From TrEMBL:
InterPro entries: AB_hydrolase_fold (IPR029058), CocE/Ser_esterase (IPR005674), Galactose-bd-like_sf (IPR008979), Xaa-Pro-like_dom (IPR000383), Xaa-Pro_dipept_C (IPR013736). One of its GO terms (molecular function) is dipeptidyl-peptidase activity. SUPFAM superfamilies: alpha/beta-Hydrolases, Galactose-binding domain-like. Coiled coil: none annotated. The lineage of its organism: unclassified sequences, metagenomes, ecological metagenomes. Residues 136-370 form the Xaa-Pro dipeptidyl-peptidase C-terminal domain. This is Xaa-Pro dipeptidyl-peptidase C-terminal domain-containing protein. Gene3D superfamilies: alpha/beta hydrolase, Galactose-binding domain-like. Pfam families: Peptidase_S15 (PF02129), PepX_C (PF08530). Residues 207-227 are annotated as: Disordered. Keywords: Hydrolase.
Length: 375
């Protein structure tokens, strides 16, 4: 995440100054010149006025599979943890997917962790307050033996849309069923596979990148936000269901399967799930991105490429008369580093190439979003 790493760099550099609070609430505006600058190896100096060793290291080791990151990953020893663990997070927290993976790792190791996920961002006061309350109850139960206030079910989730807390015995709930919602020509979305149709096409220009709106950020602009403006851009495809006849609740991981083609070997595809209310306001629920490089995805026999994108897990209720929407684009700047289209080293690249993208939706290439529907 370009936004997360540079914002964190700025926060660390200013944590002992009197301007720290001001920086937190004005970070996006102040950091925009650094977010937009190329080459990225100079962005740290624009952000904090001097080079940052860790920033240069991150750029050099920008592949998540790099040994640099594997050596720092504690998950390989997580199963050995025997101390009682209570996790508190938010659906828009920057660490959510990895926190949930840690929870599953502990469960598989035979531990009995607790999990609480609310409607929060990483810096939300609600997350902090709940963390303190849960911590006091947890310590009282395991250090003094007083379990009177310890809840019965280990998993407690806030269901967005319904604005309710629900308790479960596990994550993800076993009674959720995967349901495919297919992309159709004309921008519709439903559970039927599309008939024969031409692909939808758009042009992604990294010199005018598709902007990011809300979501998991280290910023006061994080969380659920109105997406209508970005959805009106020519470089964003939008697929929307009919008005729902009844509530639909989803809890668990969300995934998109797109059949695509691109004029470039190096490009990105970003998908975002939104809830559209009865007045047409589109609010982001969860999203995900994948970066295409040669050899990552095997082409189909017709030359198209099946791309699998993991969106962030969620718990949300789409209300009756609301609509389900999926965005498809090729960027979310500055949240994610824009794809330059060249495959050049991330730190030094300055050349930008336009990508012409196609998204298919037909019987042999049924692009879809897979939702974890609760019975």
């Amino acid at each position: 995440s370009l936004h997360g790493s540079l914002s964190w760099t700025k926060m660390i550099a200013t944590q002992e100054s009197g301007s720290r609070l001001s920086m937190l609430f004005n970070s996006d505006k102040k950091l925009m010149p650094a977010f937009n600058h190329l080459p990225l190896q100079d962005a740290d100096e624009l952000a904090i006025g001097r080079p940052a060793v860790h920033w240069q290291d991150w750029l050099e080791h920008n592949d998540p599979e790099d040994e640099y990151w594997k050596e720092a990953n504690f998950r390989k020893t997580l199963a050995k943890v025997t101390a009682p663990v209570n996790m508190v997070g938010g659906w828009y927290d920057i660490f959510l997917p990895w926190q949930l993976k840690d929870y599953i790792t502990l469960i598989e190791a035979g531990r009995q962790p607790f999990l609480t996920i609310g409607p929060w961002t990483h810096t939300d006061k609600g997350l902090m307050g709940t963390g303190v309350r849960e911590g006091i109850t947890w310590f009282r139960a395991h250090l003094s033996g007083d379990q009177n206030d310890l809840r019965e079910e280990p998993v407690k989730l806030f269901i967005m849309g319904a604005n309710e807390w629900h308790s479960f015995s596990e994550w993800p709930p076993s009674d959720s069923q995967q349901q495919r919602w297919h992309l159709h020509p004309g921008g519709s979305l439903n559970t039927e596979i599309s008939s024969e149709s031409e692909p939808d096409c758009y042009r992604y220009d990294p010199a005018d990148p598709t902007p990011s709106v809300g979501g998991p950020l280290l910023s006061p602009n994080s969380g659920p936000k109105k997406n209508n403006n970005v959805e009106s851009r020519l470089d964003v495809l939008v697929y929307t269901s009919a008005k729902l006849e009844q509530d639909i609740m989803i809890i668990g991981p969300v995934q998109a399967e797109l059949y695509i083609n691109s004029s470039l070997e190096y490009t990105d595809f970003f998908t975002r799930l939104c809830d559209v209310n009865s007045s047409g306001k589109s609010i982001n629920i969860c999203d995900g991105i994948t970066r295409l490089v040669p050899g990552k995805f095997k082409p189909e026999s017709d030359g198209s490429i099946k791309v699998v994108i993991d969106l962030w897990p969620t718990a949300h209720c789409f209300r009756r008369k609301h609509r389900i929407r999926l965005q498809v684009s090729s960027g979310a700047h500055p949240r994610f580093v824009r794809n330059f289209g060249t495959g050049e080293p991330l730190a030094t690249a300055t050349k930008l190439i336009v990508a012409n993208q196609s998204v298919y939706h037909d019987p042999t290439r049924p692009s879809s979003v897979i939702l974890p529907i609760m019975d």
